[in-house]
User: Fold this.
Amino acid sequence: TGVCTLYNRLDNEEKSLEVWSSYNAPVDLPSRDIPIGHICYEATIKSKDKIVNLGNLAGTEFEQSDPNVKKYGLKAYLGYPVTVNENTIGALCVVDTKIREFNKTELYIIATLAKAVSIEEERIFSDRALKESERRFDLALRSTDDGLWDWTAGSDEVFLSPRWKQMLGYSDDEVLSLDDPFPNLIH
Assistant:
């Protein structure tokens, strides 16, 4: 196989380790496995924030514990953790079937790429959290018997709850047809 790169991600509350992306990976590489024993989990993900550089896997615990080391003849490993909100969720890894020392440039590249993946993962996580917050807010607005309105000064957006419009006797069409609904509806 030679050199292979992988982005391995913990899922299902650390019950599985999944290959989310790879380059030059063996076609029979399992896309999901238990994390225990795998280098990327034991050495990189558990390390939290450091590069793991193992130029020779012979004699390490991973020679026996990681099922892929023997199966694919892996000899060298380089890994960097991927984090979201200070929680390690995965690892960006490079493995090689030859014993080798990874040079400073390779160390810099994997660290930079892992940080870029971390930033993207954090953006995705934040986007999901925002959508969930908006869903809960919408549910709360629809469940309350109070008339609520919100005006965002910067964008001049106005939100009027369904109950607020009902209390004042306006339909959605009437509110949308007004040029400047906020002052007109208040007065």
About this structure: The first strand starts at residue 4 and ends at 11.
